[in-house]
Amino acid sequence: MGHGWEHTVLKVLGARDFRLSLLNRVEITPSYLRLTFADGGLLSAATIHPTMWIRLWFEHDGKPHQRAFTLVAPDSAAGTFDVDFALHPGAAADWSRDAPLGAPLDATLQGSKFAIPSPTPTRLAVVGDAASAPAINSLLDAMPDTPATIWFGHNAPEDHAIPLHSRPADDLRRIECMRGPDALVDAVTSELVGRPVAAMPDMVWVAIETSATRRLTKKLREDLGVPKRSLHALGYWRAA
């Protein structure tokens, strides 16, 4: 597997490589596909955990191009998992639409780690969008007894149809973000401003556009006093 200098660096860091095979493709919305893969031994070599992600390799203008994706429904016994693709211009989206069943795809496992805090949080706040929906679902499934407030940004009208594993005790807020992720940042901070410390969630999980993730993290830490130990934030995509 040769994928340029990025892959070389990952190998130095201990990355492991696998070759997947495309088994199925399902359209969830016109701009959101779910692909099923044979895992090529990846799951048996890994410790499966909530929000687990891998790197997938594509080609763009003759050059290697890698993107990170969260695993959906990993099944070690069957050796399969799903990956959701939010469609937008780019090599990954093109491959997800056009690749024939049986097509191989190279994957690299390196860097994914997450564990539910102990003791388990009693209140959870989640901020995400279409790109992080699989990770949100994984997190909610792993914490079935922890009620969550979920701010979910819609970057396109059809994002309303993306499945979310919200439970009866959860409070799901759908935020229109057609003009950008600032609406999501503003919605979260405006609601939490002035809330007493005792009423703040004891775990906050943020996974939106990278610059918006940084802005929201700064506000949560500096303006709202959310402790570093309670905040888990990762940029999931970059605005063009």
From TrEMBL:
Residues 15-117 form the FAD-binding FR-type domain. It comes from Arthrobacter echini. InterPro entries: FAD-bd_FR_type (IPR017927), FNR_nucleotide-bd (IPR039261), Riboflavin_synthase-like_b-brl (IPR017938), SIP_FAD-bd (IPR013113), SIP_fam (IPR039374), SIP_rossman_dom (IPR007037). This is Siderophore-interacting protein. Transmembrane segments: none annotated. One of its GO terms (molecular function) is oxidoreductase activity.
